[in-house]
Please model this.
Amino acid sequence: MTTILPKNPSFSKILLFIILTLSSAYAANAAAKITGLKCEYLINPISMDSPHPRLMWVMDDARQGAKQTAYQLSVSTDSVELSKGIANTWQTVKVVSGNSRVNYNGKALQPYTKYYWRVAVWDKDRKSDISAIASFETGLMDKSNWKGTWISDNNDANAKPAPYFRNSFDLTKKIKSARAYIAVAGLYELYINGEKIGNHRLDPMYTRFDRRTLYVTYDVTAQLQSGKNAVGVLLGNGWYNHQSTAVWYFDKSPWRNRPAFCLDLRVTYEDGTTETISSNKKWKTALSPVIFNSIYTAEHYDARLEQPGWNKPNFIDTAWKSVINRQAPSLNIVAQTMQPIRAVEKIPAQSIKKLDDKTYLYDLGRNISGVSSITVKGEAGTIIRLKHAEKLGKNGYVDQSNIDLHYRPTDDKDPFQTDIFILSGKGEETFMPRFNYKGFQYVEVSSDKPINLTKESLTGYFMHSDVEPAGTISSSNNTLNKIWQATNNSYLSNFFGYPTDCPQREKNGWTGDAHIASETGLYNFDGITIYEKWMADHRDEQQPNGVLPSIIPSNGWGYEWGNGPDWTSTIAIIPWNLYMFYGDSKTLGDNYEAIKRYVNHINDLYPTGLTTWGLGDWVPVKAVSPVEFTSSAYYFTDVSILAKAAKLFGRADDQKTYEALALKIKNAINAKYLNTATGIYDKGYQTELSVPLYWGIVPDSLKHKVATRLAERVKQDNNHLDAGILGAKAILSALSDNGYADVAYSIASQETFPSWGWWIVNGATTLYENWDITAKSDLSLNHIMFGEIGAWYFKGIGGIKPDPKSPGFKNVLLTPNFIEKLDHFESEHTGPYGKIISSWKRKGSTVEYSVTVPANSTATVFFPAGKKVMAHSGQVNAENGLKITSGDYVYLIK
Model:
């Protein structure tokens, strides 16, 4: 609710009281609703392997003070019986609790079974409307339940064309339901009776293939028919059979082989019987028109090789070859329980320019991760090249010089980011690559024979893990708004089942980039399923002594360079952030022993408490800070998280050990680098002052002095950044959390070099890798490593923060900063309990601050020092902030 108040203060207070009273009276008559039912953070998932999946819901109740006092969960295999209140699998008693996430703890879950569930919630001893019925469905639950055999064709890893596979079969009974379970080493597309199944892209997600293999489940009931059927599979290489050459040597991966798959198509008939059609030696195989595919470079397609109807029942496959059996890539085959990658947004070309008789240039108007689709007509054998790039050269053609740095081609047959489409000559044809994505804004389309293209001939598709938006901001500064949009574009462009550094040059899971951007991601998107999968990748990659590689997943590259606590702190920071944002300690618990091994190893190597292991403040402007300083700060952070986790899990001995170690590291940093008389760390650069403030290393008695030195340093640097990615992570919050929000804003809103705004005024629609937009190296135009600003909007201006004492926004900390140079600022974040709103606008000499706290949660409001509350509603004064319950609130601040 937003209240418009006249300038008369006395009348304002009266009107505020009347409006809020009417609002509260209206809300009191509104019935609570139970919404947002999810299992394992997914809506009605159909492939769960967890024996104790997490069930969660949201209490939607606008009444002030609304909260859940008790719940009752009911789970059944019979939805009709459940609707009558009968649960045959699990029904809790009325549990007196405000929890809205509960682990299933009923009868042992059975494979291939659909479970229905709902929840009743009590509020102040009044039972709410019971929730609608939701569902979850188990998958195989155990690898022993697989019936299929892993199969491939008889080619080796160096064969270029992608293989087709098919099998035809008869179904004689009436079908009730059917599920397809498919595990793949590589990538795939699945077809039944000629229809592509699902809208996922690049399935399954990338893992360390020889340690964990993912399978995906589809409901294929509608695609099957009585009588003759056919199932078809097209396999792509992905990261499993990396044929392109680059500095990371994925072409030499220990798991590398020709792609293979295992499939079970399980049909349940109306008479209750089941039948499973599986991958086995009866299947047939042939080479497809996809004559080359690389996740790193591009895809080549020869439409002349198409075999129409190859995936339909009546196709004659007598010329096709027999398949071979293959060993499974790993013994750990588990369900892919996460949001898939999709082509989320269709982006029409903004312009087309004919460069010469055989070359056209398309501009999408923005930088994206994804693919392009072209529709064209031409002579058979016409070769069309679609070259993707982020920028143009001086000659007007696309220029890849900023992204091809690490490409090491062995010949000219695998051009970088360049799809090749050979026409069949059979009328109008459309090509869109299946097993690849790129980072680009421009597409240069060239052909060896003249073709006619229009602006509508080519379309871009923005691809990424299809995570639900969870946050928005809006302000009176349009540059700030554009930076936020660019940050989100870069974040999504680097979310492909794991967080990456860039979508064009590398696609690697650089750890440092990921933990730096994790809060930005969690404020803006519901990405927990991706992070949980990626933390499992960490556990797969960790060596027995605790060492992690700098890129995850890895083929072995990165254990010797680029790792260290400033980068591989992902092992601790991301699980802790998930706990803060969701109040869910599962990932922190899953990673506990891994964090412990990691910090113990650092302690063994560096017993003084200071470590020189790491990369340091990557891509700085001018000032270079000691690696020992920044790496030791992250070492302290990891140990501190481990100590807090030990306390959370009741591990008293560990808590004592790691609290002592954290204090030792903190004292060692301060003893060497802090001048207590001046409040300056080391040389007093921005990174050296902001990092210890942000990560809690500065002694409490000196925080104000150090923050003042930082603010002075920023002014000395003309209110511009002088930091690399570690300093840029820390500096904005280090200032705004310590009384200098306007100084932080002066950095965040700059439009001259070096700044985020400098990128924007120069046309950026994503974040860059380097402050210098003319740099000759390190200049990807779609990087997320400077993305902390996207989180700072919520923290530093809107002031929405999770409470470590009551995480998951059970209690919201609200610390708004009313920036003098802004007229208004709105921030919204949807957490586990619903939408949190913190917004303010200037009204003459006062600020109107509006708050929404979702039902079943509370908030503590802290106004900036020196601000006086002129009019308010609903809060109880307390020594440490204003304590408020759920509902809408408005404050007038002077």
Summary: The CA atoms of residues 348 and 431 lie 16 Å apart.
